[in-house]
Amino acid sequence: MYYKNTVLCYLNSYLPLGLILQTMFSYFYRVTVQLLEKSIADYRDALTKERKERTELQEKRDALTREIDSFKMSFSRYMNELNRRIDQAKQDQIDLTKEVSYDVIQ
């Protein structure tokens, strides 16, 4: 307690109280600004990282979408070809049946 009073008396005798408060306020202000600047920089870094990750995920999604569309188109072509062959086989059967029936009738 004596030490604190001595320091304050010493400061008061050489520096006016307003200057002491102004110096303390200036110090606290600088520290606060530095902390806020660091927080802002950290938030910017996190935002940049999230944007990069989102871009990478979108690219992966686009690649998968292209692959799926390609597969769908290939499968659709395959099914169309299979249906065409089935229809052709049915038509061939009908033609053969008509041909055999015509031969039997005559």
Keywords:
2 helices; 0% strand; rod-shaped; mainly alpha; 96% helix; 106 residues
Which helices and strands occur, and which strands form pairs?
Blueprint: H1 2-14, H2 17-105
Describe the model.
This protein has 106 residues and is mostly helical. It has one domain (2-105). 96% of the residues lie in helices and 0% in strands. It is built from 2 helices and no strands. The protein has helices spanning 2-14, 17-105. The longest helix has 89 residues, at 17-105. It is rod-shaped and about 135 Å long. The model has no long low-confidence stretch (mean pLDDT 85).
Our count of domains comes out at: 1
Structural category: mainly alpha
Mean pLDDT: 85
Alpha carbon gap, first and last residue? 134 Å
Beta-strand share of residues: under 5%
Computed Rg = 43 Å
Enumerate the spans where pLDDT stays under 50 for 5 or more consecutive residues: none
Specify the helix fraction band: over 70%
Envelope shape: rod-shaped
The SSE order reads HH
In short:
With 106 residues, the chain is mainly α. It has 2 helices and no strands. The radius of gyration is 43 Å and the shape is rod-shaped.
